[in-house]
Design brief:
- The complex is a heterodimer of chains A (about 525) and B (about 60).
- With about 525 residues, chain A is α/β, with parallel strands linked by helices.
- Helices cover about 40% and strands about 20% of the residues of chain A.
- In chain A, strand 5 (about 140), helix 7 and strand 6 form a beta-alpha-beta unit.
- Chain B has about 60 residues and is of the alpha+beta class.
- Chain B has one domain.
- Chain B contains 3 helices and 2 strands, in the order H-E-H-E-H.
- Classes of the chains: A alpha/beta (about 525), B alpha+beta (about 60).
- At the A-B interface, helix 1, helix 5, strand 4, helix 6 and strand 8 of A face helix 1, strand 1, helix 2 and strand 2 of B.
- Strand 4 of chain A pairs parallel with strand 1 (about 15) of chain B.
């Protein structure tokens, strides 16, 4: 067993590229541990923890590239370097010969009609880059997280002064003039405008609008903290006003987790003055309070989409709180599924890649389950002590920060969830596994395919002990997304996964099953 | 008209700073985009960055 490393000074690659390459290098036979990355503090700590560090590694700068591995046999080192260079060369070839300016300032000189900066550099550098972009009069979508709330306030105040959009930090999705930015689905053009503070929540609403035959005019992301007291909803208010003034938008949808009370009032006041109908999903927010402002409150993300579509058609919206399938069919599905369970199978395990979808699931399951353990629990008493271990009913958001330190988000690389599922496979008390599959730009090229082996493994494990685990899923995707929606659905159904048309319906089905199981 | 509403009438033209996959996806959709060859300022050395930003603000 030996440690080998190589440092290449002043050679920079972005984090997602490197994490994916790191994974492939780790697969080379004989490699016990591997890091391929930049000399960031995090990577240096990681190397130390994995016992593959050295003084030279400890002294690297953030734009030095390194590979460090623990090998079962030193002779494998050559294979590692060959594999690494093959992957890096492939990446360089894909990058092509396009001109790459070193700074935003040069970029806007070269591409004179630039109007949006999409920024995804590491958090500690992100605010600086966003400020430079705003100063160059670019609207900004800031994908990076780990930006302080003080910096967010400063950036948004500057953007507001200049009349620019400052989407983010931690803004995962937007569709401007039908161009999907970062994580976004391909949605038909239409007259529904969305401002969303919740990434996958916004994706879910836009996808269902598309499935119902309508489309979007603009989808503006704000980042998850926009509606906190400290920020005051600056971006949501700007976005809402812009949609009110936009002649192509006829209906407006606002999506957020419940905002701070004062901010909520501010937003709803502006919405109440809109000559266009406004649908509001403050996920789990106060329905009657929202309604009192003369806007349309919604009970789920799916309901928000249904209401927006009804209003776009000139119809009166009604609450959508049911299944697409007839109740009799749903009852049959429930009866059949429950009949296959053994007596000791009692628990739900929700393994989510989307944070908002996790949150919505827990809110909809509400009081039907005693305590839903989570890394983002509704009830602080139900916080998982160790997020890597489920207990009782558990819903985990695998995209939360603690799971993404040094690893790509599970929407990019679903292996975090595949690994987690194989752990759940060992637990004979599990009755239902619930999962979301998010398609679209930004996401993995085959989010369903990446889970197939671990679903099969879990099914086999259950079968070996004469059990059957119920798999329920929903796909957040359209038939125009780069991944095939049809094939994704077929693959899941061929595996025996019950695929529901939305997160809300998947959760509703789980609820019916759990009530029956725990009766 | 506000700058945001002006944007709604413009052709989208992106400056991408960071993850290259975003740039590639935009290009694959024939969206005008340019990738900044970004790297941490001053090699990521915090002291140097702080000194540089002080110099720039003068």
């Amino acid at each position: 067993m030996g440690v080998k490393y190589q440092i290449r000074k002043n050679t920079y690659y972005d984090s997602v590229t490197l994490m994916l390459i790191s994974k492939d290098v780790g697969k080379v036979e004989g490699v016990k541990e591997a890091i391929v990355g930049m000399g960031t503090e995090l990577n240096k700590e990681l190397a130390l923890a994995l016992e593959i560090s050295s003084d030279e590694i400890a002294n690297m700068a953030a734009n030095d590239f390194f590979v460090s591995v623990m090998l079962s046999d030193d002779a494998i080192w050559e294979d590692v370097i060959l594999k690494l260079d093959e992957l890096l060369n492939k990446k360089n070839e894909e990058s092509g010969m396009d001109y790459r300016p070193k700074t935003i300032e040069t970029a806007v000189k070269y591409q004179r009609d630039s109007n949006i900066a999409v920024i995804s550099v590491p958090g500690q550098y992100a605010a600086d880059e966003a400020r430079k972009a705003l100063e160059k009069n670019l609207h900004v979508m800031l994908f990076s997280d780990n930006v302080s709330i003080q910096e967010e306030k400063e950036l948004k105040t500057l953007a507001k002064e200049k009349g620019l959009l400052m989407m983010g930090p931690d803004c995962g999705t937007a569709i401007i003039n039908h161009v999907p930015l970062a994580f976004a689905n391909v949605i038909s053009e239409g007259n529904i405008g969305i401002v969303g503070a919740s990434g996958t929540g916004t994706q879910e609403v836009s996808v269902i609008i598309d499935k119902l035959g309508k489309g979007v005019s603009q989808v503006i992301g704000t980042g998850g903290r926009d509606l906190k007291d400290e920020i005051g909803g600056i971006t949501m208010i700007q976005g809402l006003q812009a949609l009110i003034d936009d002649p192509k938008t006829k209906v407006i949808v606002l999506i957020s987790k419940p905002p701070a009370l004062e901010i909520s009032k501010k937003i709803l006041n502006l919405a109440s003055q809109s000559p266009k109908p406004v649908v509001v999903d403050f996920i789990g927010g106060d329905y009657e309070m929202i309604k009192s402002y003369g806007v349309y409150p919604s009970i789920t993300l799916e309901d928000a989409a249904h209401k927006a579509v009804a209003l776009s058609n000139g119809d009166m919206p009604v609450d959508f709180d049911r299944f697409t399938l007839a109740d009799s069919k749903i009852d049959k599905i429930v009866d059949l599924a429950v009949s296959k369970l053994s007596e000791d199978q009692k628990y739900l395990r929700g393994l989510f890649t989307g944070g908002t979808l996790t949150d919505e699931a827990m809110k909809l399951l509400g009081d039907s389950l005693e305590c839903i353990y989570s890394n983002i629990p509704l009830n602080p008493d139900c916080r998982l002590v160790d997020s890597s271990k489920s207990i009782g009913h558990t819903c985990v958001d695998l995209g939360d920060d603690e799971f993404t330190q040094g690893r790509p988000h599970p929407m990019i690389d679903p292996s975090t969830r595949a690994d987690r599922l194989t752990i759940e496979a060992e637990d004979r008390s599990v009755a239902v596994i619930l999962m979301d599959f998010v398609l679209g730009y930004g996401s993995n090229e085959d989010p369903v395919g990446a889970m197939v082996e671990s679903i099969k493994y879990t099914q086999q494990k259950a079968e070996d002990r004469n059990q059957h685990v119920i798999f329920i899923g929903s796909i957040c995707g359209t038939d125009k997304d780069p991944q095939s929606l049809e094939e994704s659905q077929k693959t899941l159904e061929d595996l025996g996964v019950i695929v529901m048309p939305s997160n809300a319906q998947a959760v509703r089905l789980v609820k019916k099953i759990m009530i029956k199981v725990n009766r | 008209m506000s700058k945001i509403n002006e944007l709604f009438d413009q052709k989208i033209s992106i400056v991408n700073i960071g993850l290259e996959s975003f740039y590639k996806e935009l290009k694959s959709q024939n969206v005008e985009a340019i990738q900044v060859d970004w790297r941490p300022p001053a090699g990521g050395n915090k002291k140097m960055i702080s000194l540089l930003s002080k110099l720039k603000s003068k």
